[in-house]
Amino acid sequence: MAETLFGSEFDLEALLQRALAPVDPPENLSKHLEQTLTSIADLAEQELESWELSAMRDPKNWIPGITRPVAAAAIGGVAGAALVVLQVRGRLRAAQR
Amino acid sequence: MDKATLDREFSDLYRAHLKDVYSYAYYRVGNHHDAEDLTEQTFLQAYRHFERAVAESDGRPLRPWLIRIAHNLAANLYRDRSRKPQTPIDDTQHLRTVHTTEDLVEGRDELARILEGVQQLPDDRREALIMRFALGMDNREIARAMGRTDGATKVLIHRAIKQLEQIVQTQGAAA
Q1: Chain B residues with CB inside 8 Å of A45's CB?
Q2: Phi, psi for residue A2 in degrees, rounded to 5
Q3: Residues in chain B with pLDDT < 70?
Q4: Touching A: B residues 34-93, CB under 8 Å
Q5: What is the ipTM, given to two decimal places?
Q6: pTM for the complete prediction?
Q7: What is the gyration radius of the CA atoms in chain B, in angstroms?
Q8: Which residues pair with A5 in a beta bridge?
Q9: Do the beta carbons of residue B18 and residue B124 sit within 8 Å?
Q10: Which long-range contacts (CB under 8 A, 24 or more apart) does B75-84 make?
Q11: Of the candidates B124, B21, B25, the residue with the CA atom closest to the CA atom of residue B74
């Protein structure tokens, strides 16, 4: 695109390229922004960890979603078996006396 | 994607595009103070929504998404303050900080007139030119950033250049 302007040939797109040259961000902005993003990321991680700890105290959160009933049945089964073993041992001890 | 990987990818995005976001913000708002605020808010918002953006991007570059965030925040900034840029770009200061001595010797007046002309364009045309010339974005990227079709973006840029040409010629004739 060559036009006569300011008394000379000029290319508007080339001038735009120079007029709108990329601008370097100030150094303090880069540092400040990196610190802010790092602290937000750390905070999010800490929050996640503390949520995980508190969630672990509640058995409802041990195994999420659809596996929960299966896990409950499995845990119940193990507990039931343990109870039977204890009862058998108790009867054996009583018989020994 | 686990959090460590996500943070690493965000860090890469930040390093790759900090200058783009700052350049866009600077030419959009016209001063360094607001440009710094806008850049900071853009990256904070981007961090909050990064996981979803990555999932929805299908591997496409995220620069248009970043610039779209900056564009929306800039629009909010003007709406909240009910004003246009407080001050137009200070041509003298801008030319001194952004351009080389050689540039200035060669065509300071021309560059100042171009910048002045860009400031007079309607918002969407000005933004399209900033994205094209300051950030080097292609039509497709600009279309994604502005929420337009590729065809509409091509027309927008063409009209922006034509209008700028007229503005600059009028200025030249008046000078």
Answers
A1: 3
A2: -110, 125
A3: 81-107, 175
A4: 35-36, 39-40, 43-44, 47
A5: 0.81
A6: 0.71
A7: 17
A8: A8
A9: no
A10: B77/B29, B77/B34, B77/B37, B77/B38
A11: B25
